[in-house]
Amino acid sequence: MPKFGSNEWAKAFMKAVNDNPNYKQAASWWEGDFIFGIDPSGPLSKKINMFVGLYHGDCTGAKTLAEGEEFDVLKPNSPPRPLKEGEKVGVEFVFSGPYDNWVKVLKKELDPIQGLMAGKFKLVGNMAKVMRATKAAQELVNSTTMVETEYY
Question: Whole-prediction pTM value?
Answer without folding.
Answer: 0.95
